[in-house]
Design a protein that fits this description.
- This protein is α/β, with parallel strands linked by helices.
- It folds into 2 domains: 43 residues; 151 residues, Alpha/beta knot (3-Layer(aba) Sandwich), CATH 3.40.1280.
- It has 5 helices and 10 strands; from the N terminus they run ββββαβαβαβββαβα.
- The strands form 2 sheets. A 7-stranded parallel β-sheet has the order 6-5-4-9-7-10-8, with helices on both faces.
- Strand 5, helix 2 and strand 6 form a beta-alpha-beta unit.
- Helix 1 packs parallel to helix 5.
- The longest helix has 14 residues.
- It starts with a strand and ends with a helix.
- 34% of the residues are buried.
Length: 210
């Protein structure tokens, strides 16, 4: 676990306050104004939030044609956090073996979370359903259920599979038709959707722990 220090700019007009890893940065001068930095808090570590709760239901995820490797990496990290059973990478969704950029946002989660690649998400969906895995799509449709009104029960014998689609096109209509539930996130601003990695994180935590 990394040990941090808090340093503050000594210029009264600036007073920038920043965390630093002393093994990586010397922290002698303010990056904003160039004045000397003073050490104000030494040797603290981020709190460990692991193992505070177990997921309420077993959950896997299907990523269909996610274009951005950074989004995939962020989903790997979220998946590790919620205890996903497996990540199914479909269509042109990049894998950690193909694209090293995934590791930049996964931060090692790609080494611990199991995953597999599949060219056709519909073929995979049919196989998953035959094996007893209900599918939950995250998509804004006229018939979608707001996620806060849905509470999944653990299926027998398999885990639920959370489905997210392409950043622009959304979930493939054929895949959507195969899903047992379609859920949406409430949006009260001017935009009608979140970044796919952010939306996945909100849904995965709700389904796993709510």
């Amino acid at each position: 676990m990394t040990t941090f220090e808090i340093r503050q700019c000594t210029d009264p007009a600036c007073r920038l306050r920043i965390p630093l890893d002393p093994e990586v940065f010397s922290g002698a001068y303010c990056p904003r104004c160039g004045a000397p930095l003073a050490l104000v808090e030494a040797a603290y570590q981020n709190p460990d939030c692991s193992a505070q709760a177990a997921p309420r239901i077993p959950l896997s995820a299907l990523l269909d044609n996610i274009r951005s490797a950074y989004n995939v990496g962020a989903i790997f990290r979220t998946g590790d956090g919620v205890g996903l059973r497996h990540l199914y990478l479909c269509g042109f969704t990049p894998s950690p073996d193909e694209n090293p950029a995934i590791a930049k946002t996964a931060l090692g989660a790609e080494k611990h979370l199991t995953w597999s690649q599949h060219r056709n998400s519909l073929d995979l969906a049919d196989q998953l359903k035959d094996d007893g895995h209900p599918l939950i799509a995250l998509e804004c449709t006229a018939k979608a259920t707001p996620i806060y009104r849905f509470r999944a029960e653990a299926p027998d014998p398999g885990s639920w599979v959370l489905v997210v689609g392409n950043e622009q096109a959304g979930v493939d209509p054929g895949l959507l038709a195969r899903c047992d539930q379609v859920l949406s996130l409430p949006m009260t601003g001017q935009k009608n959707s979140l970044n796919v990695a952010a939306a996945f994180a909100a849904a995965a935590y709700w389904l796993s722990f709510a």
